[in-house]
Structures are given as structure tokens and as C-alpha cells.
Write a structure and sequence with these properties.
The chain is α+β, with helices and mostly antiparallel strands. Helices cover 55% and strands 18% of the residues. Strands 1, 2, 3, 5, 6, 7, 8 and 9 form an eight-stranded antiparallel β-sheet that branches. Strands 4, 10, 14, 15, 16, 17, 18 and 19 form an eight-stranded mixed β-sheet that branches. It has a three-stranded antiparallel β-sheet with strand order 11-12-13. The relative contact order is 0.14.
């Protein structure tokens, strides 16, 4: 997707129709800069994009129901519709799209008072044909979602000041699923689904022509598969319910923080919860390291008996004088072949001298034993040392695990004490919110237990199904039709297995490549020795190495912002590379825009420069909204060479004592705030002349 332009009509602070805002999209000039003071329409423009494409808004966008410009409503007649729309023109996969979302507002009279009624929005999508004519498309949401999934839109259109919420969010399942959809993994899912349906049809055919035993086995297998599918569906439902409960918990905690009188308590609670998460992460890491040590080096502790036997054998050879060997076997053979001893005596076959030299062959053969013994002694010494080191490592890790567990116990006690304090708070809203949080925790615990039971049962079903499949395959089949049906079933199952393995491998390969790219981008921006980690559930975290071990590291708001930017840039980069390499199964996904509102607010000077230098390289197209203070020297220096379009949002204020403000760009002054020529306020858009 590459954005071409956007137009607005009566959208929030933009009164009537704005001129078409054409966006930069050349490879070397891919940045569009929108200058404006706070509250003058930058966030509105960002949300115009997300509203048009997905009917979604950022968290900082207040009163999202009231989109229609207030002045336009005030000028309207009773019961007459006031239109508000935004229109985006973009291109994708060599096609041009025009998408418009429209809503209406009405002034209604009710008992002498005027009320405003807002209608639901309508979405229209047109595609330019080869002849240049615009053709209206049905199901516009599906078309847009196929180009850039709705569940991923917040990673391409986002509020930079709140971008760190990506790291803190619990929508891991949505992130993973949406990313897979972007990769075209859905094609594999559909293929697997259709193959399973085909396999069932073939099994029904075999069931109808097979003997009694075959029919029984197939019926049992199909019943188990039906039960397994029900459990699988329920497990996914539980995962989604857990995500919803976690989101609800976040909202309740935010609400609890906002309540007066408990600021310090809530801050302490949040700090303890963060420590608890870090310690649990460290505990998992220590246990995994312990498992790895035992699985790779554990064999060494069982070799003590064999090592003692080996040393006994070597000692016996030394006692008998067989080691060390005095002479090499090749040397004796060479003497016998030359028929001459080193003393000069002739060695004729059968002579006493010949037989005496020949007798040394047995003793000389021990030289090979000596060589092998020396090599083996080195290996045995290493194994003995490895066993000793293993026990020391296990003791160290067990002690660390014990310390972490003790720390967790202390944190749990402190958290429980704070929870009791909140439950007994004199403030009713606090008590009610805490009761709600306790209810959520109980629900999460119940869902987690249910998921564990369902998962265990599902695993059991898979084993039984596999066993029945083997019995069906090995059952006696005499008729040609039965054998042919079984061959077709086997072929379908092999295809399912191969596609499932391909899907798993692609997912894991993408995740690992994504993590590697996140590390590369993060290291280019951050000056700290921290390493990003991306778990199998797409959980983002920072770790640092302490005493040779990775431990979870706390992160500031700025560091979380950088980590989130690294994540977004990595998704764009990896999908783009996979698409160019032909690994993405689906429409071309090699071009992505990035629309950012205030991306530099929480960053210091060093990070601002690094981010400003890097982000134009991540996306194919960049639209950045900045205030005058954010467009500082380091940001302007890094971005200006790649700026292709630039606009200023001019806020026309109807305030009598309006304080004007200007910005100088390329030697010319542009108004940011000025006195309105009318009795109402509005924002207009001016294009910057690059000269």
C-alpha cells in the first residue's frame, strides 16, 4: 500500500473541504511533514486515515462520536443532514483505490432544545480499471483488510507519544495472527482445511466399502476427531477470553490509578507487579538453562564407573611394562623388509636374528594402544571435569532458583498486603474497583485451569487418533477399491502433514528473523547494552547479561518507545523482504506506509536524532506530524534531505486576544496560529513551498 492523497470535508476542526493533501511517495523523497501546534488537527488527520480505512481511532482521540465540524452543524437547518467525510486515494499491487467514509449529523428540536443526532458511517470503495474508469467494489472492508489487516493497522498508523503501549499491551494473540495473515499463512490454513474435508470424504468412501473392522475403526477415529475439533475450538475461545480479561484488567488498573487518594499505593503496587513479572521471567530462564545443562551434559555423571575401569586397565598396562611402548611397529616391519638390522646384521628368513627382531612386532603393536590411550585419557579428563562443573552449575542455578522463589514469595506477600489495603479502603470506588480486579483474577485462574485440562485431553485425543490411523492402514484389505481409497487417504494425510510442518516452520522462521531484525534496529538507536527478545507468543521484552546469564531488564518510557518502533520497523522490513523473495503467499506486501503523530515527544536529543535517521529507512512512505518544538535541529537535519511534501496546519482562533505563532521553513514564515477572520475557529492547510 502506498498513500497518494487525503481530502477532508467538515471533519472535526477542518471546516468545509480541505485542499487535497498530496503525500510524498518517491523512493528518495518519501517523507511528508505536517507542522502544527498541539490541538490544531494533527491527531485529527491521523485518525482520519484510521477512520476511513478501519473506522478505528487512537486512544488520544477524544469524543470520537463527534466527528462532524461544530460550525457546520451550527449553520445547518433543523432536520437537515450535515455531511462529514474523509477520502483517501492509495495504490497497491499496481491498482489504484479510492476509499471514502461518510457520516451525517442532524440538528433536532426536542422540547425547545436543540439536540444533535449522529448517523452510522458509510464506506465506499472504488478501483480504477485499465481504461481509467472508477468501478465501485462490493465488500470494501474485506478488500482493505486483505491489503493491510485491520488488526495490524495500529502498527502503521499510530500516536508516537503512546507507541510504547505496544510493548505493554497483551494483544499478543492478535499480533501473531495478524502478522501471519500478512505473510499469507492463511493460504496454508485454507489448504489444510480443504484437505481435511477431502480426507473425511475418502474415509466415508472406505467406510462404505470396507469390512466390519475397518468400518468400526473409521467410526471411532471420526468421533475422536470431532471431539478433538471441539476441544481445539474451545481452547482458542479460552485464549481469546484470557486476552479480553487481561485487557479489562489493564483498564481497571488504569482506572484505579486515576482514583484520588491512593496514588502512592497504586504506584507501589505497579512497581511490585513489574518486579514479579521480571522475577518470573528470570525463573523461567533459569529453569530452561538447567534443563539444557542436564540434557546436554548430564550423561557425564553416569560415567564414573566406566572411567574407573578405564583407569584400572591403563594402570595394569603400565605395571606390566607394556606402556609406554618402546618401539613403533612400522619401524620393525621396515627392518624385516630390508633384511638388515640396525646393528648391521643380516636378517634372513628363519634365522635366529630374524626371529628375534620379528618378536618385537607384538611389543611394537602397543604403540597404537598408547596413542589411543593418550587420546582417550584427555577425553576422560574432560568428562570428569565436565561432571564436576555440571554439579557446580546445578548447585549455582538451584541456589539462584531458590533465591528467585524467595523473592517471589516476598513480593506476593507485599502485593497481598496492598490488595487487603485496597479492599478495606474508605473510598467506595476503590473498594469496588478492587473487587472487580479480584473477580477478573478468579476468572483468569478458572480459564487457565480449563485451558490446561482441555489441552491435555486434546493431546490424548491426538495420540488415540494416530493409533487408530495406524490400525486402519494395517487392516486387511482385499478389494482393489478398498486399497485405492486407502492410498488416497494416505496421500491426503501426507499433504496435510507436510503443509502443517511448512506452516510451523514458516511461522518460527519469521519469528526468529523478526527478533534478529528487532535487535539490529534497537542497537542502532539505543546506547544501552540491552537485547530485545520476542517470545513464541510475540511478547516483547528487554534483557541484559548479568554474570553470564540473561535477566529481564526494566525499561523507561523512551526505551519502550524505541522497542516498539523497532518492532514495527521489523515487521515492515521482514514482510517486505519475504514478499520480494516470493515467500509471501498472497497479494504483494512489499510496500507499506507509516503515519506517525508526534513520534519524538518522549525522547532525548540522542534518541531523537537516531530515530529521525532510521525511520525513513524502515517504511516505504512516511507521514510525520510534528509540533514546532519537536521539529528541532537534529530532527530537521536528519529528515529534511528525504522530505518530498510539507504542510502547515494553520489554526484560525476566534479568541479576542489571540496570541499568534509562526514557523520559518526554507527562509519563509508560515502562520501556525492567527486571528480568525470569522467568529468561529477552524484549521486550514497550507502547502510549504520548497523553493
Amino acid at each position: 500500500m502506498k498513500l497518494i492523497s487525503i481530502k477532508l470535508f467538515n471533519f472535526r476542526c477542518f471546516y468545509q473541504q480541505t485542499p487535497e493533501i498530496v503525500l510524498a511517495r518517491l523512493d528518495d523523497r518519501n517523507i511528508t511533514i505536517m507542522h502544527g501546534n498541539n490541538g490544531t488537527g494533527k491527531t485529527s488527520l491521523l485518525n482520519a486515515f484510521t477512520w476511513v480505512l478501519y473506522e478505528k481511532f487512537t486512544s488520544a482521540f477524544g469524543d470520537s462520536e463527534q466527528l462532524v465540524n461544530r460550525q457546520a452543524i451550527a449553520e445547518s437547518q433543523l432536520n437537515q443532514p450535515v455531511e462529514c467525510w474523509a477520502e483517501v486515494l492509495f495504490e497497491h499491487d499496481a491498482k489504484r483505490y479510492r476509499v471514502r467514509r461518510l457520516t451525517r449529523a442532524y440538528q433536532l428540536a426536542n422540547n425547545g432544545e436543540k439536540n444533535i443526532q449522529y448517523n452510522k458511517s458509510e464506506l465506499f470503495l472504488q478501483v480504477a480499471g485499465d481504461d481509467g474508469r472508477w468501478v465501485t467494489q462490493n465488500h470494501p472492508e474485506a478488500v482493505i483488510n486483505g491489503i493491510l489487516p485491520k488488526s495490524l493497522h495500529q502498527y502503521f498508523f499510530f500516536d508516537g507519544e503512546r507507541i510504547e503501549q505496544i510493548v505493554r499491551s497483551d494483544n499478543r494473540y492478535e499480533i501473531a495472527e495478524a502478522t501471519k495473515k500478512l505473510l499469507g499463512v492463511q493460504v496454508l490454513d485454507n489448504a489444510i482445511k480443504h484437505l481435511k474435508e477431502a480426507r473425511k470424504s475418502l474415509e466415508d468412501e472406505l467406510k462404505s466399502i470396507g469390512d466390519a473392522q475397518t468400518k468400526t475403526l473409521i467410526s471411532q477415529k471420526q468421533n475422536l476427531e470431532s471431539n478433538s475439533t471441539e476441544f481445539e475450538v474451545r481452547i482458542k475461545e479460552i485464549e481469546q477470553e484470557l486476552e479480553a480479561q487481561n485487557q479489562l484488567k489493564i483498564s481497571c488498573n488504569q482506572r484505579l490509578t486515576e482514583l484520588g487518594g491512593i496514588d502512592e499505593i497504586q504506584k507501589r503496587r505497579e512497581a511490585l507487579e513489574q518486579q514479579e513479572r521480571e522475577n518470573r521471567s528470570n525463573l523461567r530462564g533459569l529453569k530452561n538453562q538447567l534443563k539444557t545443562d542436564i540434557s546436554t551434559k548430564g550423561y557425564s555423571v553416569f560415567l564414573s564407573g566406566a572411567i574407573a575401569d578405564f583407569r584400572g586397565l591403563v594402570e595394569g598396562l603400565h605395571e606390566r611394562g607394556e606402556l609406554p611402548a618402546d618401539i613403533k611397529q612400522t619401524f620393525v616391519i621396515d627392518l624385516l623388509e630390508r633384511r638388515k638390522c640396525i646393528c648391521g646384521a643380516a636378517l634372513h628368513d628363519g634365522s635366529p636374528n630374524y626371529e628375534q627382531v620379528k618378536s618385537w612386532l607384538e611389543k611394537a603393536g602397543l604403540a597404537d594402544v598408547e596413542t589411543a590411550t593418550l587420546k582417550l585419557e584427555g577425553f576422560v579428563d574432560e568428562v570428569e571435569k565436565q561432571a564436576t562443573d555440571l554439579w557446580q552449575s546445578i548447585d549455582t542455578k538451584q541456589a539462584s532458583i531458590s533465591n528467585v522463589k524467595n523473592t517471589l514469595s516476598r513480593l506476593e506477600l507485599e502485593l497481598e498486603a496492598i490488595s487487603d489495603q485496597l479492599r478495606k479502603s474508605p473510598i467506595e470506588d476503590v473498594r469496588n474497583m478492587k473487587a472487580r480486579l479480584d473477580e477478573i483474577d478468579r476468572k483468569v485462574e478458572d480459564l487457565t485451569l480449563e485451558k490446561g485440562k482441555k489441552l491435555q485431553k486434546w493431546t490424548d485425543y491426538q495420540g488415540q487418533i494416530e493409533n487408530l490411523q495406524k490400525q486402519i492402514k494395517s487392516s486387511k484389505q482385499n478389494e482393489g477399491k478398498q486399497k485405492l481409497a486407502q492410498k488416497r487417504i494416505d496421500a491426503a494425510q501426507q499433504a496435510i502433514d507436510l503443509l502443517s510442518e511448512l506452516k510451523t516452520n514458516r511461522n518460527e522462521l519469521f519469528r526468529k528473523q523478526l527478533e534478529t531484525r528487532i535487535c539490529e534496529i534497537f542497537s542502532q538507536i539505543s546506547f544501552k547494552a540491552q537485547t530485545p527478545r520476542l517470545s513464541e507468543k510475540y511478547e516483547l521484552s528487554l534483557v541484559e547479561t548479568v554474570a553470564g546469564q540473561e535477566v529481564q531488564s526494566g525499561a523507561s518510557t523512551g526505551e519502550n518507545q524505541i522497542l516498539s518502533l523497532s518492532f514495527i520497523g521489523s515487521i515492515i522490513d521482514r514482510v517486505r523482504e519475504w514478499s520480494k523473495s516470493g515467500l509471501v503467499m498472497g497479494p504483494d506486501s512489499s510496500t507499506f506506509p507509516m503515519v506517525m503523530d508526534s513520534p519524538f515527544g518522549s525522547l532525548d536529543e540522542i534518541y531523537r536524532r537516531q530515530v529521525a535517521r532510521l525511520i525513513p529507512q524502515l517504511a516505504n512512505q512516511l507521514v510525520v506530524m510534528v509540533s514546532k518544538t519537536q521539529w528541532r535541529v537534529e530532527v530537521a537535519e536528519e529528515m529534511t534531505p528525504r522530505v518530498g511534501k510539507e504542510y502547515v496546519f494553520v489554526f484560525n482562533s476566534n479568541k479576542p486576544d489571540t496570541q499568534t505563532d509562526d514557523i520559518v521553513l526554507y527562509g519563509k514564515s508560515y502562520p501556525l496560529v492567527r486571528k480568525s477572520a470569522y467568529d468561529y475557529e477552524y484549521t486550514e492547510v497550507l502547502e510549504v513551498n520548497h523553493g
